[in-house]
């Protein structure tokens, strides 16, 4: 079985019936929440001739995620499907398009979290599969554990019917070229000169949130290096009481700052707006570690936060029939999409 939508029966309820769902899922809020799927395609640099492709990719992902949420009523499906679109797109550093380790291999990290149950799944050092995000979901749904690495994660992938690709299948000309540049450039990282990690956050009309993040990590990383993306609280977090966050940028800084958790703590305990929270936490992290990054977030009321301290970050969201996207500070392109897209 290839992994796409795997729907437990309880999630097949239409969105309008969510007030009847039990075990901690929210009932309809007094103030209407607009269902939204927000994605990022990584913070960093985007070559001018790639900007349109990258914008197309993030818009496709937001639309796919939104459609999944309408079809299944599940924000978890929304973020998984959105991230799968980006993992299959060569323009992003995740799945196909992942950057290479020092040895020229692909080692991917991913995590996914359901804010209605504080459930999560994480994988690191995933190899030879297109969709590490679906493997992270499998860890959450099919095992008693919440984080699997390397050979153990790959054994689960085989058992669960993931397509195991030839070793070279995820290695692209672009990633090989980047590794060459890295090896002669005498720098410790190239994370801020290429589009980075991908991620998605979503909220439904009942305030159920989810988050997902997937990455190839850093060009030229040591084999075995683990970034922030598979770490709940750092690269990914979701809690119906506060919101959902996905991070991109310098993993060693994001994990030490516990960036996603800090953002949601400000919303929950200090009454910050989500935009104020992402700005303050990312500015503080950047000032402290002299490393940059980006964040997308949705709070429990459905408000959005989008911010980056890198040169650019691609993002897009769908809310109703509005599809927004941007890559530069202050940019917000809007198109109206058909109901059936
Ligand atoms: N933020 C992705 C990484 O550092 O691996």
From TrEMBL:
In this chain's numbering, which residues are marked as the site (Cleavage)?
196-197
Matches recorded under CDD domains? ASRGL1_like (cd04702)
Keyword entries, A-Z:
Autocatalytic cleavage, Hydrolase, Protease
Q: What is its EC number?
A: 3.-.-.-
Q: What is a single molecular function from GO for this protein?
A: beta-aspartyl-peptidase activity
| Catalytic residues identified in the record | 197
Per UniProt, subunit arrangement is:
Heterodimer of an alpha and beta chain produced by autocleavage.
Q: Name it.
A: Uncharacterized protein
């Amino acid at each position: 079985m290839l992994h796409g939508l795997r729907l437990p029966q309880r999630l097949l309820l239409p969105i309008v019936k969510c007030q009847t769902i039990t075990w901690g899922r929210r009932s309809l809020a007094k103030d209407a929440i607009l269902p939204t799927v927000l994605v990022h395609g990584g913070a960093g640099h985007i070559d001018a001739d790639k900007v349109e492709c990258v914008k197309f990719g993030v818009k496709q992902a937001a639309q796919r995620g939104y459609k999944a949420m309408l079809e299944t009523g599940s924000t978890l499906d929304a973020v998984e499907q959105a991230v799968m679109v980006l993992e299959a797109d060569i323009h992003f550093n995740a799945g196909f398009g992942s950057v290479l380790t020092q040895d020229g291999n692909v080692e991917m990290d991913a995590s996914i979290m359901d804010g209605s149950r504080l459930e999560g799944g994480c994988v690191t050092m995933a190899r030879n599969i297109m969709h590490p995000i679906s493997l992270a979901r499998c860890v959450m749904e099919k095992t008693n554990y919440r984080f699997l690495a390397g050979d153990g994660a790959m054994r689960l992938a085989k058992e669960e019917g993931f397509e195991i690709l030839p070793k070279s299948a995820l290695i692209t000309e672009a990633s090989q070229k980047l590794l060459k540049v890295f090896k002669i450039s005498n720098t410790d990282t190239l994370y801020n000169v290429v589009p980075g990690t991908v991620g998605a956050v979503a909220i439904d009309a009942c305030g159920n949130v989810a988050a997902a993040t997937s990455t190839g990590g850093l060009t030229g990383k040591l084999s075995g290096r683990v970034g922030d993306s598979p770490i709940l609280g750092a690269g990914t977090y979701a809690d119906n009481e506060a919101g959902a966050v996905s991070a991109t940028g310098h993993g060693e800084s994001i994990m030490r700052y516990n960036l996603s958790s800090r953002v949601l703590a400000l919303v929950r305990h200090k009454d910050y707006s989500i935009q104020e929270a992402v700005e303050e936490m990312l500015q503080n992290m950047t000032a402290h570690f002299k490393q940059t990054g980006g964040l997308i977030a949705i709070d429990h009321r459905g408000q959005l936060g989008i911010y980056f301290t890198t040169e650019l970050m691609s993002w897009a969201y769908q809310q109703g029939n509005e599809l927004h996207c941007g890559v530069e500070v202050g940019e917000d392109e809007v198109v109206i999409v058909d109901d059936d897209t």
